[in-house]
Amino acid sequence: SKMLAGDGEGATALFECHVIHADTKENARTLAKSVICSSLTKAAIFGHDANWGRILCALGYSGVQFDPETIELFIESEAGKILIYKDGKAADYSEEEATRILSCPAVTALVDMKTGDEEATAWGCDLSYDYVKINADYRS
């Protein structure tokens, strides 16, 4: 399923969201799916933009209750891993390093909820110009 997720028509990157330390398995799954399904987050991945606000927004509209002051957000790929959000605000990170990490063909948003021991992972793809064009032009 992971390979299928990154092989969407026009996709340029496999996008994974791994939620750790959630209070329940169901909440971890819901949060991960919310991030993966967010058009704004998928567009940020395509644009190689470490936009923690889009990830946080997707977590917020998931319906799962959490304290944004306690979670941590990371981005990672084969090029490295960096903390992008902590203590309710942007972490101090290099935009250049973030762009390098996000330029890889497989990118992970790691979300540490800090509320328990459960985890879940969801997979999808970025939202590229070609992805939109191919799917907008498709007729059934």
Automatic annotation (TrEMBL):
Q: Which Pfam families match?
A: ArgJ
Summarize subunit and interaction data from the UniProt record for this chain.
Answer: Heterotetramer of two alpha and two beta chains.
Q: Name one GO molecular function term.
A: L-glutamate N-acetyltransferase activity
Question: What keywords does the record list, in alphabetical order?
Answer: Acyltransferase, Amino-acid biosynthesis, Arginine biosynthesis, Autocatalytic cleavage, Transferase
Give the residue range of the signal peptide. Answer: none
Q: What is the protein named?
A: Bifunctional ornithine acetyltransferase/N-acetylglutamate synthase
Entry similarity comment: Belongs to the ArgJ family.
This protein's species is: Candidatus Eisenbergiella merdipullorum
GO BP of this protein: L-arginine biosynthetic process; ornithine biosynthetic process
PANTHER family associated with the record: ARGININE BIOSYNTHESIS BIFUNCTIONAL PROTEIN ARGJ, ARGININE BIOSYNTHESIS BIFUNCTIONAL PROTEIN ARGJ, MITOCHONDRIAL
InterPro entries for this protein: Arg_biosynth_ArgJ (IPR002813), ArgJ-like_dom_sf (IPR016117), ArgJ_beta_C (IPR042195)
